[in-house]
Amino acid sequence: NKKVAIIGLGLMGGSLALALRHRFKKKVKVYGVSRSKSKIRSAVRGKIIDYGTCDLRSLLNEEHIDIIFIATPVSIVKSCIRDIEKHAQYKVIVSDLGSTKARLLRWVDGRKFKSVEFVGSHPMTGSHESGLGAAQGDIYKDCMSFITKTSKTPRRALKIISALWERLGVRTVIINPDLHDKIVAKVSHLPHVVASVLVDNTFHRNKRYSKFIGPGFLDTTRIAQSDPSLWSDIFLSNSRNVKGELKDFKRRIDSFISILNKNDSKVLTNFLKDINRKRKNIINL
Prior knowledge:
By secondary structure, the protein is of the alpha/beta class. Helices cover 53% and strands 15% of the residues.
């Protein structure tokens, strides 16, 4: 039987534990690592994990773990890798679920590990809800996951992590970490900024606007409810790309203002038709 440990039992870590248990049944033992004893108890009681501990060192000493997933905020991933390297006396494949990769992989590639074989993962799924209570066993099914590859990425580990995701029903895309961060800045991080700023723009002067809110506003701003600490980490770790996308977005806003200034319904309608077509094509991809 394979042994998989997950460090961090929030939405993503808890959901991964459920997915592993549902897919592999007793063929894979799932270990949860958390600083919270109550969270460990809840995860075991809820059959989200097989075993849990607050002590990573003891786990690595007492069990031969095959794969470790780090499901923490991106700012903590490095320290988790250091701890694994310090306490594991055998080769162990390590991956993460973080939303940014370039800085992390430069750090990983600049070190020589005796135990850790690291491959970055970024499944493009999630929820505006957070915590173990929001974990869902099917959250990864039919989603896409980036898997980052550099010239120093261990090939065996890359193959195993890719195969594991695919057996969970995930479509994998192997990608350079710098390109990964540029892509997610546009398709994930910028939309989150826009949703957050839209909420701020609506309510920073008058909270009474809430009584007039309809489903369109709620749909557009749903992701602004996501974990603030998690997203603060993400924005700061990919700030250069996010700032570049914001500047480009500002130019698009200015372009729309120019269209309005023309007071030409044909030009405006054609613009909106083009956007309508592009949005429908996303669904048809």
